[in-house]
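Apologies for my clumsy wording, but can you show me some protein sequence, whichever is easiest, together with the matching C-alpha cells, please?
=====
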Amino acid sequence: MRFNDPVQWTRYWRAADQPLEAMHAHFTSHRYHRHSHDAYSFGVTEQGVQAFRCRGGAHTSTAGMVLAFNPDEAHDGRTGAEDGFTYRIVHIGPELVADLVPRLPLFRDPVVRSPALAGALRDLHAALREGALARDEHLVRAVRAMAAHVTPLPGPTTAHGDPGPARDLVEAHYADDPTPADLVEATGLSRFALYRAYRARYGLSPSEHQRQRRLREARRLLADGVRPAEAAAAAGFADQAHLTRWFRRCYGVTPGAYARAATR
C-alpha cells in the first residue's frame, strides 16, 4: 500500500499469516512519539539523517546504517536534516526469530554499521512482493545476519525499587483507567519513586505504557478486520480520532492504512 502527500510518503506491508510487517517511508516533518514494538525492529536508512533517543542516549543514523530495536524497547524519532530522511524498516515477531536462532538475541547498540546486514534487510524488503517462499528464504538470511551482531546486555536494575507489579496492573487493565493510587498500592513505592523506577526499567512512563498497550490491541483488532471506530472503543481510546492521532504519531500511518496493508 502507498499513501502520499506532496512531501512525505509511506508504503506499508504486513503478512496475513505471520508476525511480519515492513514499511518504506520518506519523512520531512513527521516526529515519532516515544513508543515501542512487540517485535524486533530493524531499519535501513537510505538517504538523509534519522535522529532518535533510545536507551537514555541520543543517536543518529545516516545512509547505509541499520537501526536495531529489541522488543518493547522505547524510542522516538525525527529527521536530523532539513531535507528529511528515507528508510526501510522491518518488524519481526520474536516467535519467528526463535524459530531461526538458538536463543532470542538482544542488541546493545541501537545503530549497527554493517553493509551485509543492510543488504540482507533490503533484500528482504524486495522479497515481500515475490511470494511466501522468497520471503521466508530472505527472512532466514536477514535474521542470521542480525544474530551476528548480538552482544550481551546487563540485567534489569532494581536500584529504584521494583515496578513489576505496577506493569502487571497496567497490562491487565490497559483498557480501563487505573489510578496512581492503584499502582502505588501494588508496589509499595511512592508516586515519584514509582515513576522513576518504571522509566528506568521499561523506558516508558505508566501512562505511556498504557497507551502503547492500547495501540497494540487496536493493531490486533484492525488486522482481524475490525473497523477503526470499533477498534478504538474496544482498546480504550476516547474515539476514532483519538486512536488515529496516536497511531500516526507512533507508527507513521493511519489505522485505516494499516488495516488495508495486509497481503496474502
